[in-house]
Amino acid sequence: MTNIKIKETQAFIDLVGRAANVASKKPDSIRSGIMVNAKENKIAVRAMNESVSVQVDAIDITETEGEIDFVVPAKLFLDMIKKLPKGDVELVIEDKKMDIVVGKSSYGISTYAVDEFPQAVAYEEGTIFQVEGPTFAESLSAVVYACSESEARPILTGVHILSNGKYLTLIATDSVRLAANAVPIIAPTEEFKNVVVPKTSVNELVTLIADQKKVEFSISQNQLSLKTEGITFTTRLLDGTFPDVTKLIPSEFESEVVLHKDELLKALDRSKTALGPKEKIARFSVVEGTLPTLTIEGKTDITKIFEELFVDEAGVGISLKLNVHYLMNSLNSMSSKKVRLQFGGVAKPMLVRPEVEGATQFGLLLPVR
Amino acid sequence: MKDMYPKNGRVILHVDMNSFYASVEMAYDPSLKGKPLAIAGNPEERRGIIVTCSYEARKFGVKTTMPLWEAKKLCPNLIVKKPDFERYRAASMGMFELLNQFSKLVEPVSIDEGYVDITDSHELGSPLEIAEQIQKQLIRQLDLPCSIGIAPNKFLAKMASDMKKPLGITVLRKRDIPTVLWPMEAGEMHGVGKKTAEKLKNIGVHTIADLAKANEIQLKSLLGINGIRLKERANGVDNRLVDPDAISEFKSIGNSTTLPKDISNQQELFKVLDRLAEKVSVRLKRKKVMATTLSITIRYKDRHTITRSKKLLNPVSTQDEILKMAKQIFVSHWTGHPVRLLGITGTDLVENDQAVKQLDLFSYEKDAKKEPLINTVSKLKEKFGAHIIEQASNLSNDKKQQIGTETSFNKDFLQVEKMKKQDD
């Protein structure tokens, strides 16, 4: 029997929460558990799923007599410790169970066999790059929506990270729309490409690094590793070659307009509601004139929509059909007040850019014929 | 000749082929004539029920949907043949082609019956003469017997064609209704099935005359709006027009097949899917539509049946596209157990020229190259009509190709007919 005294309950909950987030969602798998290692004033929590392995460490939030390892179901354990009454929390670990004891409350949870829990994926030294945690997290989450949902082309289910030595470019595409962003690298590094992080790992990575000032990544053969104070994270990378999209992105445009993002989003949201779940396509037209506008038209068997939005700058008239939902996804990933829509042609990609100086982010979407 | 036609109102023929499949078989093989013949779904397999039979077989009491063994008991000399849908379709096409020579207003109802509106065909003769010509020409050109009803509307024409079989021609005028139609049992009326007939009996409606005079409120509470409609029909009222396009109002196109044995080998099942995909593709193209949702039906050995569908980003109509999606859906839902029946159905159909295509980042340049061509084509269509030019792949001049299977038995074969008209 070993006792772990929790000295900082909130810090302990946060720590478990970070690992539990990664634990596999498949309920019967051993990977749905987290492995806790406690020794004296140190504690480490490990979790893994099909793509990711993570370990979070902390000092002085627990006190243990000697050393103990145990594996408990992640979600259940986290939910329990979040709801404990006020008071000193103690974990009492016996052969096949663990009791959470607070005052007169006591909850026992069966534990999994420790030796069945998979080995941690080792941190591997490789190409190193450093970025600011919040910036990287924000940029990643702004592109991940465009990843493919379909396994038809597995490589497109991840975010492509490439480096020119000074900044990282992040690209996600499901081949119908694309999202791109750039993140400065703190110290100059090597150029690399074809580092493709699975979509699911991106979400887990983002929560881990969002509050880390500086994070250092290492890219090796088929994994991306991160080691920072208290966090060791590795994710597998997707096999295959991410297609080169640079040549497919137009640099010349038939027409461009600038307009208020929120105004456009609200109009699109109304259109989406009126079009219903079955119809996603509307016609977008740039109308020239003394007061240039962007119009949105669409119809179903029972509804008809028309929106007319004033635009700040307008190019020549153009009219094409777009997926309303896709355009909304793209706009929602941007934080600027105004956006610039650039139309390559009726059968060519259109771009959405935040209308701010030095913006590196853009969304791309293919029209519907 | 115009005075043989009503001043107001229409003249409608209902042409009903007599025991069509059996007659087609006899036309192909005249030695079968005069013998009891039945067409049954795969005689040696478990689907052995009578699809249709000749009048000679009917004399023995053989009926449609009767199991084969029962029919053989009633008529030991029964000749049983497998259905040859390709043959029946060819014959059906021939028949509708012939009907089209008498009027542009031909509405196919099924493979072996259709309505013809001959109101404006007075130059060809009196209604009776036209009916006689149709009957004779069907015999002479296709060696196929039919019965024809002549009436002022579809319902009466349908009732009339039923009155004399085989090779009958019956005229049913409005003034004949009390003497001819009303004495008939309500159950004999087109549109009144067994269950409806039972219900009608419960309220004292036995004959069509009873129905014609029945209380509307009572009818409506018993049969809903259909009750009112039946009463109208019983009084000889039917305002439905003969609509040659009625056939294109379809909602889904699907093919399924019961496997000769239960199969659990994935490769073999893929081959079955491939064949089904081909059939669905041919039918989609024939109808000039594309499917935006694809469903797969799997029936297992224990007869447990599931149908799973997937909404597609882009509508499909080619065999490759259909097969690709069908395999995806199949693989993600198949339990691995032996399969008895497989089916592919395309739904949410859109017409080819209304189908939208979400362009793809990796192929839009190819599409963009077609752009000037597409513009030219749409200008041509605007100027000369939608059928002035079409993609060769959309033209289905593959009349010989077998379309549909055992279970896809619906009206698509008639589509060829329509297309030909458009080509003219």
Automatic annotation (TrEMBL), chain A:
GO terms for cellular component: cytoplasm; DNA polymerase III complex. Signal peptide: none annotated. It holds the Pfam family DNA_pol3_beta_3. InterPro entries: DNA_clamp_sf, DNA_polIII_beta, DNA_polIII_beta_C, DNA_polIII_beta_cen, DNA_polIII_beta_N. Transmembrane segments: none annotated. SMART domains: POL3Bc. Forms a ring-shaped head-to-tail homodimer around DNA. Belongs to the beta sliding clamp family. Keywords: Cytoplasm, DNA replication, DNA-binding, DNA-directed DNA polymerase, Nucleotidyltransferase, Transferase. Residues 131-244 form the DNA polymerase III beta sliding clamp central domain. One of its GO terms (molecular function) is DNA binding. This is Beta sliding clamp. It is found in: Cytoplasm.
Automatic annotation (TrEMBL), chain B:
The active site is at E113. It catalyses: DNA(n) + a 2'-deoxyribonucleoside 5'-triphosphate = DNA(n+1) + diphosphate. GO terms for molecular function: damaged DNA binding; DNA-directed DNA polymerase activity; magnesium ion binding. It comes from the Bacteria. Its cofactor is Mg(2+). Residues 12-193 form the UmuC domain. It is found in: Cytoplasm. Its EC number is 2.7.7.7. The keyword Transcription does not apply. One of its GO terms (biological process) is SOS response. InterPro entries: DNA/RNA_pol_sf (IPR043502), DNA_pol_Y-fam_lit_finger_sf (IPR036775), DNA_pol_Y-fam_little_finger (IPR017961), DNA_polymerase-Y (IPR050116), DNApol_IV (IPR022880), PolY_HhH_motif (IPR024728), Rev_trsase/Diguanyl_cyclase (IPR043128), UmuC (IPR001126). Pfam families: IMS, IMS_C, IMS_HHH. Monomer. Belongs to the DNA polymerase type-Y family. Poorly processive, error-prone DNA polymerase involved in untargeted mutagenesis. Copies undamaged DNA at stalled replication forks, which arise in vivo from mismatched or misaligned primer ends. These misaligned primers can be extended by PolIV. Exhibits no 3'-5' exonuclease (proofreading) activity. May be involved in translesional synthesis, in conjunction with the beta clamp from PolIII. PANTHER family: DNA POLYMERASE KAPPA (PTHR11076:SF33), DNA REPAIR POLYMERASE UMUC / TRANSFERASE FAMILY MEMBER (PTHR11076). This is DNA polymerase IV.
